[in-house]
Amino acid sequence: MATEQKQGKPYGGVPGGAKQQPESFELHIDKQKIQDMKTLIRLSPIAKETYENLHTDGRFGVNREWMLDMKKYWLEAFDWHKHEDHINSLPNFKQEVTDDDGRTFNIHFAALFSKKKDAIPIALFHGWPGSFLEFLPIMDLLQKKYTPEDLPYHIIIPSLPGYGLSDQPPLDKDWRIEDTARIMHKLILSLGITSYMTQGGDIGSFIARTIAVLYPECKAVHLNFMWMPPSTSKTSLPTTNAENKSLQRLHDFINTGSSYGLTHAFRPSTIGLALSASPLALLAWIGEKFLEWSDPSTRPSIDTILADITLYWLTDSFPTSIYTYRQDYTNTEEGYFHGLEKYKVEKPMGYSYFPYELGPIPRSWAETTGRMVWFEEHGSGGHFAALERPEVLLRDVEGFVGVVVKEGAFGGS
User: Fold this and answer.
1) d(CA 105, CA 186)
2) Which of 260, 323, 325, 343 is catalytic?
3) Alpha-carbon gap, residue 268 to 203, rounded angstroms
4) pTM higher than 0.90, yes or no?
5) Which residues are responsible for catalysis (predicted)?
């Protein structure tokens, strides 16, 4: 008879049948490391006033006043231990995953496991400059909505290789999106799961789509990011007035907002070394993305932004988190990943459209990339949907799951 791993935390019982039981994990950053970070923040200067950094409209990037305010808050008001306590209140695990070449990776994941025998496993994948912290609000909502006895899903939220609490890619070989997708797939199978669905935004959307295309155990995929460049074949497709208005963000990103990605792709060593020298440098680089890529009306709080950046700093993750850009930005094919024919999804696919996404792709464009069975357009929200509008993204995922189950992908009818 199947048994569950004994686990002190609610939703922490790993379903029986796991090929190997993951180890329970709690995050405890050494106090000296936190103190060293604060010392560096305090001693790091902020550049003198310039014509550019006095502009507060974002056209030249983050401004000096914002940096001064954030430095003060980071030193005087931000409490990492509150975030650490929140993380540790949820079930977290580490699992050793063995790759095809025999290498092992210690992969972290947070999870909410159900006691229902027919619970549907859903793997949610974060992107850059995010982390598994993006999905904590959704985990909180699920705990309020369901008990372990009636939770309809197994929720699995990994830290991607190179991010936060998971091992980094190897030092002696290049690492690609397909490699991360393979490790994530192996992680899920190691938990005794034989069919599941994926969800993702940003780089997580690349991982989620790749898994859906490559592995039959993945039955469906939901995305809230589907960036593709304009092309003659796409711009001739029908679009709504709202989509046309939001497409300006896509054009702005291509023309003025994507230089960071070129740096990640072509000078990853330089930017990795530079941003690992100062927490304030990391704040400027990542903070800019939270400001530019989110809806001003739903933007994550200062505390949330600093929690993400603090996790990057304390785990020295930035240099090992940008490997996907080398593959992404050197792809000269028209589809730019999501639109590539080899990544077309023949399984059920869902898409949530948020107007302040850095590349808000119209429904008609997205429908060319797979068998879309579910779509929802929202009037607010941006790139960090899981943080900006967690209740809406959760509702979307649940709506999509309902359609997939009716199609019979998980044995439903």
Assistant:
1) 11
2) 325
3) 16
4) yes
5) 202, 325, 383
The active-site residue, picked from 343, 351, 383, 396, is 383
* Domain formed by 90-250+336-407, architecture: 3-Layer(aba) Sandwich (3.40)
Assess contact for 39 and 118: CB atoms under 8 A: no
Per-residue pLDDT of the chain (413 residues; tens, 9 = 90+): 233 344 468 999 998 777 789 999 999 999 999 999 999 999 999 999 999 999 999 999 999 999 999 999 999 999 999 999 999 999 999 999 999 999 999 999 999 999 999 999 999 999 999 999 999 999 999 999 999 999 999 999 999 999 999 999 999 999 999 999 999 999 999 999 999 999 999 999 999 999 999 999 999 999 999 988 887 678 789 999 999 999 999 999 999 999 999 999 999 999 999 999 999 999 999 999 999 999 999 999 999 999 999 999 999 999 999 999 998 887 766 667 898 889 999 999 999 999 999 989 999 999 999 999 999 999 999 999 999 999 999 999 999 999 999 999 887 53
Q: 263 phi and psi, to 5 degrees?
A: -65, -45
Q: Do residues 383 and 356 make contact, with C-beta atoms less than 8 angstroms apart?
A: yes
Place of tokens 């589809």: 335
308 is catalytic: no
Catalytic residue among 179, 202, 328, 396: 202
3-class state of residue 389 by DSSP: coil
Domain ranges of the chain: 31-81+258-325, 90-250+336-407
Verify whether residue 202 is a known catalytic residue. Answer: yes
